[in-house]
Specification:
This protein is an alpha/beta fold. The chain contains four helices and 15 strands. It has a seven-stranded mixed beta sheet, with helices on one face.
Length: 244
């Protein structure tokens, strides 16, 4: 074997070794951060709002008479279906799904709601059409193409529910929070909660952590909101959450 070939093999070995160390380090860091997730147990939260849990994510279900809307779709269809059965809610009665973003732990049970209309922000479409990716070339995907795109501050009315989409990019390029009836604010992963206070999501999970910081300031200035709901860290009173 020539010296040149040996050198090339050594260099390749070093590069592979570095990649293994980086991937291992990121995996351990991610595992550590995931252990800090505190999703709510399945049940009724308040008023007409219910929550269902899978391994580490929540979906929120809002009732309007005999129909429901859903905020996000967690990780996996089977556990979500089981939890909704516990709630006595038929997925076929869900008429609309609103995605805060398209990461895998928010779209996994999407097919469970086959009769629903699907909404997400216009900017989030870039995450699934190849224009944006969160980690290098690893893009997001969803199982449906029949979605409706929302502009920032656009309002959708479904029965007695008023849903306002509020663009809060950073976790993904088109993360959108939803304000229901000017009172209930569903924020996805743009923020987490610690001791009922709004705190940043671990930077590892954000596409643009600096942008996410700016977006949390938008969340701090929604005066009609009374409650904040997150996908992995429960919910709390809005005024308590935003207090410094």
């Amino acid at each position: 074997m020539s010296k040149i070939v040996k050198r090339i093999l050594i260099i390749i070995g070093i590069i592979i070794g570095i990649l293994i160390l980086v991937i291992t380090g990121m995996s351990l860091k991610m595992k550590s951060e995931l252990s800090g997730f505190t999703p709510m147990e399945t049940g009724k939260v308040m008023d007409n709002i219910f929550v269902a849990r899978d391994d580490f994510a929540n979906i929120f279900i809002i009732q309007d008479n005999t129909q429901y809307i859903v905020i996000d779709c967690a990780t996996d269809q089977k556990p979500v279906a089981e939890q909704m059965k516990k709630l006595g809610i038929d997925p076929q009665d869900v008429t609309a799904v609103f995605l805060t973003h398209t990461d895998g732990d928010h779209v996994g049970a999407l097919n469970l709601f086959g009769k629903s209309k699907l909404y997400m922000s216009k900017e989030e479409e870039k995450m699934i059409n190849g224009k944006k990716s969160k980690f290098l070339f690893f893009g997001n995907s969803i199982s449906r193409t029949d979605y409706t795109l929302l502009e920032d501050r656009q309002i959708v009315k479904i029965g007695n529910l008023k849903i306002e989409g509020i663009l809060v990019p950073g976790h993904t390029s088109g993360t959108m929070a939803y304000l229901i009836n000017d009172k209930y604010l569903f924020t996805g992963d743009i923020l987490s909660l610690k001791d009922n206070k709004m705190v940043p999501v671990p930077a590892l999970f954000d596409m643009d952590h600096a942008q996410a910081t700016t977006s949390r300031e938008i969340i701090r200035h929604i005066p009609s909101a009374e409650y904040i709901f997150t996908a992995h860290w429960g919910y709390t009173d809005y005024k308590t959450a935003i207090a410094f």
